[in-house]
Design a protein that fits this description.
alpha/beta, seven-stranded mixed beta sheet, about 15% strand, binds zinc ion
């Protein structure tokens, strides 16, 4: 009996001891797992491919990673899902004009005088100038599209969201004045977040200034084609973007004046699906045609040719071959 009790105690002690050792074992295992886990993490970071910035881009629509070289050769259209990436002014221009022919850039040095002395504005501009190679958010050139002389302005969506300040207003005004003098058509690729808040009222004044020069170009019977790309909003939509003799747009581009949320809050109604997208605007008569990015050069050259034929008394039949 006693021996049994003794044995029992011994058993209890040994059991207690075993539990302790088990606990220690678990702790040790946990520690080793933790250590291993840290090591694995470390190795993983070490194994990550070293991809320099600007080599690949991620599609915002399908999430696929695409090589930038492939993207640029594909006119910045996602090869997986067909979504359009934003194009810089230089990239856009190279897809439209005759690249092997003469292209002259005008008013390259026109820059803002920072009329409001807005805090941090000059530093921001300097950074963007280095990044984009532009002095302000627009590129103005005289070039050829399929051997036809033309003035082209391309807004850059990267440069302060393509906002329109005094420099853009001045460059566009000079562009229309020059084109009027030389009897040449104008194409403007719009992509803008609207007026530039850093220049306040001076920025808004550009709407009237450009529209005035544009009206004189139009009175001279000259052609102005406006191409709306994603996004074209605010003061730009309220002026030269919507004043084209022919208004083209890229598929699914956001085009509007105020943002949809502001409109919804103001009118207190739910907005219809696809509101402020190119397809919706085409349906409601605000634009003339939606043109895919790969067809843009072809369509523009046809319109210019038809307009020339018309002004030279050419055949009207060609006009009907457009659609
Ligand atoms: Zn995609």
């Amino acid at each position: 009996m006693l021996s049994n009790i003794f044995r029992g105690k011994q058993y209890a002690v040994s059991k207690k001891y075993n539990r302790q050792s088990l606990k220690d074992n678990i702790e040790e295992k946990k520690k080793s797992i933790k250590e291993n886990y840290v090591e694995i993490q470390y190795q993983e970071t070490e194994c990550k491919p070293n991809v320099p910035e600007g080599i690949v881009a991620k599609c915002a629509k399908c999430g696929k990673i695409i090589y930038n070289k492939l993207l640029i050769s594909n006119n910045k259209i996602c090869p997986e899902c067909g979504a359009y990436f934003k194009m810089t002014a230089i990239e856009r221009l190279s897809t439209i004009i005759d690249v092997d022919d003469l292209c002259i850039e005008y008013d390259k040095q026109v820059t803002t005088k920072d009329p409001l002395k807005f805090p941090g504005y000059k530093e921001k501009l300097l950074n963007l100038q280095k990044r984009t190679g532009l002095i302000d958010g627009i590129l103005v050139v005289k070039a050829k599209i399929k051997t036809n002389d033309i003035y082209i302005a391309v807004m850059d969506p990267v440069f302060l969201m393509g906002s329109m300040g005094t420099a853009i207003g001045e460059k566009l005004t000079r562009l229309f004045e020059r084109a009027t003098k030389e009897n040449l058509p104008v194409i403007v690729f719009c992509s803008s977040g609207g007026a530039r808040m850093q220049e306040g009222i001076f920025s808004l004044m550009q709407m009237a200034k450009v529209s005035g020069a544009l009206a004189r170009h139009s009175e001279a019977g000259l052609l102005y084609i406006s191409v709306l790309t994603d996004p074209t909003t605010g003061g730009v939509t309220a002026s030269f973007a919507m004043l084209g003799d022919i208004i083209l747009a890229e598929p699914k581009a956001l085009i509007g004046f105020a943002g949809p949320r502001v409109i919804q809050q103001t009118i207190g109604q739910k907005l219809p699906e696809g509101f402020q997208r190119s397809e919706f605007l085409l349906e409601h008569g605000f634009i003339d045609k939606i043109v895919a990015r790969n067809d843009m050069r072809e369509v523009l050259s046809k319109i210019i040719l038809l307009h020339q034929n018309k002004s030279q008394g050419g055949s009207k039949d060609e006009f009907y071959t457009m659609e």
